[in-house]
Amino acid sequence: LLRSLDLGELCHIIGTTNTRDEIGFQRSGRPLFREKRVDLQRAWSETSFRMRELRDNPECAREEYDRILDAEDPGLSFQLSFVPKAFSIGKASKPRVAILREQGVNSQVEMAAAFTRAGFEAVDVHMSDVIAGRATLAGFKGLAACGGFSYGDVLGGGQGWAKSILFNARARAEFEAFFARRDSFALGSCNGCQMMAALKEIIPGAENWPVFAGNRSEQFEARFVMVEVQASPSILLRGMAGSRMPIATAHGEGFALFPDEASMDKAHVALRFVNNRGEAAEKYPYNPNGSPRGITGLTTPDGRFTIVMPHPERVFRSVQMSWTPDDASEDSPWMQLFYNARAWVE
Fold first, then answer.
1. Residue numbers annotated as active site
2. Residues facing 307 on adjacent strands
């Protein structure tokens, strides 16, 4: 192309890729420099690693630095156990889903867009309206609590938001009635996950859920990481068990803190961090918050209420993802979660 535009004499091929995972320079066919990419990357990254050792959890800093040594890391991938299938909306009615909003919450627009795409009528419901009695949850089939930093994470991630429900008689009655119904479902993502976990005393079947504490890395983590959908009763993840795929995460307090091993064993785990080989991950950064057994999503025994620390609403379209296979469709595999909600309501 450059030659056709008479620019050939101004341009030169200075390098090509190779299969040896090394970087080399030569002049007039004579090798001048050749080193393995791993060694050069380690040298390049060492200054950052030393800084992180002092600033962050030194174990996490070392784990990420040593990750470079894995020259055979297969990278991100999509390995699905299901064929993504949209819910056939047709002329069916549009059930209402409440997109809860609170001071400091974000991602409510993405959450509303995903549920709307799945065939719901997404309604913006602010917590101040629920507390004041101007809004009720009675007419909603579903409820979604979104991410963010409600109340600046005072008392801990999601704790201030939860207390505004638990310690307000009108709001508590609204949420208790909603959770007690047999025809309702709820999704809590990120800050909404933290908040709903703190509401476990009023959510049937949630008694073994953890609280979410500060990340093991001691830093806010915004990453694109691999997770595996676990076999669980979750209505939102129905038919997706065994699937491994990347998802967006962005939180500072995602460490699943269980009171004891027995509670962890009894909890219905819905989502787990895995490394790029599909193994349950506890090491950083495959597991960005350090949760035991890689646990990052849970549900109730009847599957109606599901909480996840990652953000499925931020990746329901393929174009939202920082990497997808070449044959990716308009809907990402995570859109199935929202279609499953619509199919369950129907």
1. 190, 311, 313
2. 188, 298
